[in-house]
Structures are given as structure tokens and as C-alpha cells.
């Protein structure tokens, strides 16, 4: 794990806890559970609460603007709150019952309490940016607000895709851009924007984050089919079981390859697929070029991300840490 | 209906529609349906979309600061978006199937789509304030953000009260202050804050709105028990059917009157109450003084609201319109 991620956990962890403690009790217990800070009864625990990648990127973003990482903390907490707001609500919408090896919040506290806790986390993220006296507080809030709108648009597209058989690869990439890359781009920019960085710097960092976000989604999609359960925390080929229209799947379906119709027929089946059939579907995606396309696209995005950091005047060590995080979250573990 | 309400509809209606049209299609259709702008298939309609009270108050708030009502439009749209975000999510949490004589959005589009549309409306409200170049954009966003947090806290308390038999009147008043009065206070202030009004003016307006909000909640609770179905759009004694711990009910239960235990036993029954029993419960609330207390408290709050507008230097016609709206929304229709 890159050094920046551990630093982010140390700096952002206590600030996140302080922010959550500002919430009203009924909402706080759901948020604390979701964050892995408390069990279902409200007793303090420490369980895996995500990798703190976005906070790490937000702190780096402050450093990119020439200030100490400490000054990026409230922006980092805000981005992570938005990320977790979306996880909390998405788990309800998608009917997911497990996250980070624990029952999802809505299964523990009910749909109503989970909706409310998500709402509170979104509003709190906003509060943190608006109450901070940093020069770019308003701009940071706008940066986050734009990302939230794209996040919501992306989730809306994702839900709509489930009901459609004709999703194009371009639509799928756009959806990933909204659902995943927009908040990543915000994380890479917001720390700098918050302290009043120049637009050129902010734009370069946003471009970096957008490319990294897409490479991350491609990697996540590849892991969802070919990742080992120890790595993903989910059953093998989980995304195929759920017939998820992930990027490698749509690339294969729309490839024009001779294997595409057979794959389409398999994924369109109403009943559960056997282990053999899931393996067969994964092999058809490989044969139709879906896996190779996704791997190459992830590589290209990573290269484009690195290029985005050229000539925008950020310190060499900050650049190296950005790249290290980008490589870490797109590592091929299959 | 006070003149200010019709003016608000004319000014704020088109701006609200323009704001909703910015949403992504899947989210937009849910928001448009909820607002009464479209039917379930997305065809344009015009049905009752609420009374636009908060927008009317927000426009008056701008006028209180000495500017034209037009300058309060984005703040008015933002407040109304937050109000509707909370209705959309509360309907899911409370399992309500009808609002404004139509099926609630979640029953038409599903829980997931309704959650997402609410999220988008909350984020959009924020966008509108942050992107506006008015001098107090940041402060207006903070004013709204604080109201949102209190709204969420109030809904959390409301949900918690359902599971408790020992709710005090003080807790109940605090809950109403959070759930209803905070956004009303925000509506009465935000137009002035947005154009950079002095703190004394903003505080006087917020105090007015807080009192009006509580008087409104008391009136709504009285209507929920003694209001005619033609007025409320709900079955007679709907709140008693639902065993809602509204202010007159809690006032009666905690009055120490001899009728209180019988009322408590009746409302604690697991099975549905007959029409006769509902009538009996309503009579017990009267006998225990719950109705008289609520009526007096509403009157007192209305008087306190009027007093809040003294000496803060607002034009006489604006003051008169504020009072007219306050009286309109607390009129005794039982």
C-alpha cells in the first residue's frame, strides 16, 4: 500500500469520526456502523472501513497546491462522506446485503434509517466545506456538488441499463465516468481548489483523476469476473452471477466477434447459471476480446493520467505519490 | 390565499421547472412526477403541486432586505427543492402511499428511483445557491445546509418516537422545531441572506420563521385529528388511525388529566380502532386539554412571530404580507 494511504488514514480518520459525531444519535449510529466504527448495537469497533483512497488523493491534492496535507483534511473528509453516502444508498437500490464482509446498513437498521443516514452524510459533507474558512470553500463545495450530480446521474444510468439489452460501450464508459470517475476527479482536485489553487493546476489534477477513475472502474470490473474471492471479498465471478453489464461484458457483447451471440444468450437466461456456465461466460468474454480490451483501456487511461500531471508544476514527490496510488488501485490481481 | 403566494407561483414555478430539467432523465421523470409537472409516463400535466408557501416566504425575505422579489428566486427554488426532497424520502420511510391526492413517487417508480431523485433534488438545491453570484451565496448555502441537518434530525426523532411510549412534550416540540420550523425559518431568511442582508435582519426573520413553523405544525396536527377530509385530503382523524404522536396527543397524554390513562390504553392497542373508538380518542384528547393547549400554543407562537418582525426595519407592506401568510397557514379549519 502506498505511503500516502496510511498517512491519509492517520490524518483523516479522527476528523471523519469527529464529523460523524456531529450527527443526531439515530443517524449517527447508522453512519458509524457503515464506516466500521461501531457494531449494530453501537459499541465501538475497528473493522475494515474501506481503503481511504479518495482521502489520500484529496490530501495529495492540497500538497500539489503547495500547502501542508493537514489543510486538505476537511475536503478529504467531505469527499469520503459523499462516497459513503452513495454506497449506503446504492446498497438499498441494488438490494446488496453485504459490504466489506459485513451486513449492509439497511439490512441491520432498516431502509428508512439507512436513507436518512445517507442524506445526513451528504448534507454533512457540504457543511464541512462551507464552514471551513479556506479561500476556496465555495469553489470546493461547487466541485463536490458537481461530482454528486454526476454520481447520481451515473447510478440512474446504471439502474436503467439493467432493464436494457442494447447498451453500447460508449454509454457504458459514460456511465462509469459519471458513477466512478467524477468523484475520483473531485478527490484529486478538491484539496487544491479548497486552498485557492490556479485553474490550470485544478484542471490538470481533475483530468488525472478522471483517467484514474476510469482505469479503476475497468480494474474493478475485471476483478468482478476474474478476481479471486480473497482479493474481492465476493464470490468468484460475482458480477457474472448478477448479470452485471460491466465494461468487459459490454465490450464483448458489442465486439461483433462470433462468440458474442452465445454470450448474450447465456447472460439473458432467467434462471441461475451453474459454475460451469459462469466459467463458460467468462471464457466467451475472453474469446470475444472483452478482457483484452478492458486491460488495454485501463493501461491507456493510466498512461493518460500520468501525462495529465506533466507541466502543471506540482512537486516531484507529490507527482510520484499520485502515480503510486493510481498504480495501486489498478493493479492486476487476476 | 394571500397575494404573495400567487406571485411566488408565477415567479418560482418556471424557475423550478428549469431546475428540474437540469436533472438526468431517469431522475427528472421522478422529480417532475412528484412536483405534479408530469404523469407517471412523463406526459406534461398540471396538478396541485403544493402551496408554494416556502417560496413565497423566501421571496418576501428578499424584499425584506430591500431588493426585488426576482432576486430571491433561486433561493426560493432551493428551499422548495429541499422541502420536496424531504417529502420524497419521508414517504418511503413512513410507507405513505398517497400525497396530494396522487400515488407517492416510490409506489410508482420504485424505492430506488425515489431515493435517487430525492438525492438529486437535495444536491440541486445546493448547486443553485452556490452557482448564483449573489453576494451571500455561501451564507445562503450554509443557512440551507443547517436547515437540512435539522430536518434530518427531526425525521430521525420522529421515527424513534414511534417506538417509544414515553415521549415528553418538550421532546415533541423540539422534534417539530427540527422537522418543520427549521426549514420555515430558513425560507424566511434565505432570500435576505442571499443578497447580503445585515445579521440583525436575518436573525429577526429567522425568529419569525421559527415561530410560524411551530404554529404551522400545531395547526397541521390539529387538522390531522379534527380537520375535515375536504380540507386535509386525508381520511378524518387520519393521525389517530396511524397512532401518530402529534403535539395535541402528547400534550393530552402528559397532561396528568384523569383521561390520560384511558387515551394511552386506546392508542396502545395493536389492532385497528373503530370509527367510534377514534371519535372517543379525539374526545379524550379534548377532555385532557390537549386540543386547547395546542390551540393556545399556536396563538402564542403567532403572536411571538409578529413581535419578531418589530424593530428590524422591514417595509410595512412586506411585514403585512409575512403576517398574512402566517395567518393563512395557521387558519383554524376545524
From TrEMBL, chains A, B:
Signal peptide: none annotated. InterPro entries: Isoprenoid_synthase_dom_sf (IPR008949), Polyprenyl_synt (IPR000092), Polyprenyl_synt_CS (IPR033749). The keyword Magnesium applies. One of its GO terms (biological process) is isoprenoid biosynthetic process. Keywords: Magnesium, Metal-binding, Transferase. Pfam families: polyprenyl_synt (PF00348). Transmembrane segments: none annotated. GO terms for molecular function: metal ion binding; prenyltransferase activity. The keyword Magnesium applies. SUPFAM superfamilies: Terpenoid synthases. Coiled coil: none annotated. PANTHER family: (2E,6E)-FARNESYL DIPHOSPHATE SYNTHASE, GERANYLGERANYL PYROPHOSPHATE SYNTHASE. Belongs to the FPP/GGPP synthase family. This is Polyprenyl synthetase family protein. It comes from Trebonia kvetii.
Amino acid at each position: 500500500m502506498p505511503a500516502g494511504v496510511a498517512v491519509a488514514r492517520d490524518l483523516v480518520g479522527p476528523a471523519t469520526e469527529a464529523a460523524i459525531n456531529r450527527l443526531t444519535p439515530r443517524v449517527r449510529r447508522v453512519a458509524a456502523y457503515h464506516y466500521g466504527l461501531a457494531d449494530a448495537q453501537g459499541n465501538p469497533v475497528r473493522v475494515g472501513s474501506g481503503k481511504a483512497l479518495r482521502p489520500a488523493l484529496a490530501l495529495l491534492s492540497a500538497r500539489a497546491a503547495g500547502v501542508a496535507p493537514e489543510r486538505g483534511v476537511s475536503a478529504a473528509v467531505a469527499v469520503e462522506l459523499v462516497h459513503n453516502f452513495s454506497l449506503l444508498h446504492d446498497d438499498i437500490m441494488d438490494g446488496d446485503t453485504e459490504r466489506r464482509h459485513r451486513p449492509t446498513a439497511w439490512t441491520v437498521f432498516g431502509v428508512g434509517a439507512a436513507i436518512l443516514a445517507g442524506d445526513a452524510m451528504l448534507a454533512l459533507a457540504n457543511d464541512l466545506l462551507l464552514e471551513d474558512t479556506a479561500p476556496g470553500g465555495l469553489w470546493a463545495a461547487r466541485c463536490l456538488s458537481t461530482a454528486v450530480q454526476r454520481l447520481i446521474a451515473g447510478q440512474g444510468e446504471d439502474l436503467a441499463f439493467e432493464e436494457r439489452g442494447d447498451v453500447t460501450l460508449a454509454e457504458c464508459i459514460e456511465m462509469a465516468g459519471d458513477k466512478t470517475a467524477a468523484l475520483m476527479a473531485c478527490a484529486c482536485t478538491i484539496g487544491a481548489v479548497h486552498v485557492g489553487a490556479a485553474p490550470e493546476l485544478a484542471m490538470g489534477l481533475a483530468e488525472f483523476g478522471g483517467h484514474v477513475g476510469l482505469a479503476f472502474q475497468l480494474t474493478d470490473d475485471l476483478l468482478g469476473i476474474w478476481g479471486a474471492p480473497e482479493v474481492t471479498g465476493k464470490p468468484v465471478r460475482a458480477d457474472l452471477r448478477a448479470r452485471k453489464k460491466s465494461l468487459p461484458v459490454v465490450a464483448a457483447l458489442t465486439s461483433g466477434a462470433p462468440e458474442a451471440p452465445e454470450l448474450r444468450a447465456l447472460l439473458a437466461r432467467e434462471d441461475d447459471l451453474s459454475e460451469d456456465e459462469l466459467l463458460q461466460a467468462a471464457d466467451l468474454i475472453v474469446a470475444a476480446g472483452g478482457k483484452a480490451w478492458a486491460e488495454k483501456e485501463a493501461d491507456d487511461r493510466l498512461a493518460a493520467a500520468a501525462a495529465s500531471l506533466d507541466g502543471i508544476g506540482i512537486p516531484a514527490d507529490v507527482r510520484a505519490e499520485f502515480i503510486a496510488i493510481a498504480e495501486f488501485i489498478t493493479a492486476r490481481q487476476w
